[in-house]
């Protein structure tokens, strides 16, 4: 989408805090860290998406005259602060994992260092963008893993939470391994393959099912996938076989059939039998209708002969895990490491780096360390913006997709299971120096702030 999202997309308390920072001249560098605290049920890893969107927004960060007029009308802010916002631009640094990186709970994925008001004001956008994109990518990849190499297509556009969400779902599901989308606008914007043939309304609008099938095949002889379950699936299969034979006589082939309702497990087996007996083993069976990774896994465990899956609502809204428990927290201000001690919501102090250790081509463990520490392992956070400017060119979707495919091969199988064991969690450790700093900061806070 080419429209610019206003920098006014922020929670009001970000602005009230920034106003106080302005009055107290608190412009020293502040570092905020974005991370996810915990996993949804049965998830053991995440895929990081949304970085490009964050970088693009930060590059254009500014308040328009209309934005400032609105803030002025609220009657909350002094003219001097509004004048400050008028000329405000993002001038900070961003350290981040690469788009498409595999990451785990309780480790920093992105850190922003900027003058305190700037770093504070971008919080809402950063959390919103990284949460949704990473959530959808992490949900979608589970269907890809469950499908065991079979084609998976995005059918989510009708029931996602708005147009923008539908576009992001199409993009992120494609990145993690979906073959195509039904969303034509997403196809245009992101150069994603698009797919789709007919709905039940198409069948119903013709005097008969045979006429509907024939009309479609006449217009799209090389891309005919017949929807079989409008009236009776088995009867429709026999009609499809007759059409397939007529197409063969013309040197064409019926591409496939789709099942969208009923007892899919039984029907798919019966449809496959009828097609094979008719010498139509090349006709693919496409299944859709309320699918998610659990249903896909169940079909394949039952030996259901499915060649491709259309996955929609439950993936597009991440039905069983509609949010990530993510945070963007201050970890350093003016050279002073800081931490939060809230029960169940502690934060690790200081600017950080994450090191990834591998063994025999598989991920072994991650180590969260201070940024100035070095280890004989792969550092995952790299500087992607400096003084408000991007340091690397925009990645293509193809490059990100390849990166994700390679990264998935490095994840141990037990972490990729759709229903993993309760004890199969990836090891994320804290370096001794970071642990010592954390202990020191917590002791200082208790002495200074907590009454005994």
From TrEMBL:
It catalyses: 5-phospho-alpha-D-ribose 1-diphosphate + nicotinate + ATP + H2O = nicotinate beta-D-ribonucleotide + ADP + phosphate + diphosphate. GO terms for cellular component: cytosol. Pfam families: NAPRTase, NAPRTase_C, NAPRTase_N. One of its GO terms (biological process) is NAD+ biosynthetic process via the salvage pathway. Its EC number is 6.3.4.21. Residues 152-352 form the Nicotinate/nicotinamide phosphoribosyltransferase domain. Transiently phosphorylated on a His residue during the reaction cycle. Phosphorylation strongly increases the affinity for substrates and increases the rate of nicotinate D-ribonucleotide production. Dephosphorylation regenerates the low-affinity form of the enzyme, leading to product release. Keywords: Glycosyltransferase, Ligase, Phosphoprotein, Pyridine nucleotide biosynthesis, Transferase. This is Nicotinate phosphoribosyltransferase.
């Amino acid at each position: 989408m080419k429209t610019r999202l206003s920098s006014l997309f922020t929670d009001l308390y970000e602005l009230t805090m920034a106003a106080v920072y302005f009055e107290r001249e608190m412009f020293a560098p502040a570092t905020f860290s974005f991370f996810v605290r915990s996993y949804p049920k049965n998830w053991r890893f995440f895929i990081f998406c949304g970085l490009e969107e964050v970088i693009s927004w930060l590059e254009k960060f500014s308040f328009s005259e209309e934005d400032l007029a609105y803030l002025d009308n609220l009657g909350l802010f002094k003219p001097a602060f509004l004048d400050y916002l008028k000329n405000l631009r993002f001038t900070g640094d961003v350290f981040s994992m690469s788009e498409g990186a595999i990451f785990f709970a309780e480790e920093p994925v992105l850190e922003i260092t900027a003058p305190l008001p700037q770093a504070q004001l971008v919080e809402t956008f950063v959390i919103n963008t990284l949460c949704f994109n990473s959530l959808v990518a992490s949900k979608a990849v589970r269907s890809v893993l469950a499908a065991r190499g079979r084609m998976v297509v995005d059918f989510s556009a009708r029931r996602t939470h708005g147009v923008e969400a539908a576009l992001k779902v199409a993009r992120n599901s494609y990145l993690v391994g979906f073959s195509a989308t039904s969303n034509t606008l997403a196809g245009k914007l992101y150069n994603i393959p698009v797919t789709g043939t007919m709905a039940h309304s198409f069948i119903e609008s013709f005097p008969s099912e045979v006429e509907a099938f024939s009309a479609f095949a006449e217009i799209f002889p090389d891309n005919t996938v017949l929807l079989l379950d409008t009236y009776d699936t088995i009867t429709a299969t026999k009609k499809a076989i007759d059409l397939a034979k007529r197409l063969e006589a013309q040197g064409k082939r019926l591409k496939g059939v789709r099942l969208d309702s009923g007892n899919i497990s039984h029907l798919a087996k019966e449809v496959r039998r009828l097609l094979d007996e008719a010498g139509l083993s090349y006709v693919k069976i496409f299944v859709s209708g309320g699918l998610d990774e659990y249903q896909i896994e169940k079909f394949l465990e039952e030996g259901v002969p499915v060649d491709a899956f259309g996955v929609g609502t439950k993936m597009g809204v991440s039905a069983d895990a509609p949010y990530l428990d993510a945070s963007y927290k201050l970890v350093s201000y003016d050279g002073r490491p800081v931490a939060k001690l809230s029960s169940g919501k502690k934060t690790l102090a200081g600017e950080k780096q994450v090191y990834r250790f591998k063994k025999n081509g598989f991920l072994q463990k991650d180590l969260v360390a201070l940024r100035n520490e070095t280890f004989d392992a792969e550092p995952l956070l790299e500087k992607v913006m400096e003084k408000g400017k991007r340091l690397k060119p925009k990645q293509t979707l193809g490059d990100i997709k390849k990166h994700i495919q390679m990264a998935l091969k490095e994840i141990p199988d037990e972490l990729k299971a759709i229903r993993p064991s309760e004890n199969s969690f990836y090891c994320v450790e804290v370096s001794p120096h970071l642990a010592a700093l954390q202990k020191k900061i917590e002791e200082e806070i208790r002495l200074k702030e907590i009454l005994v």
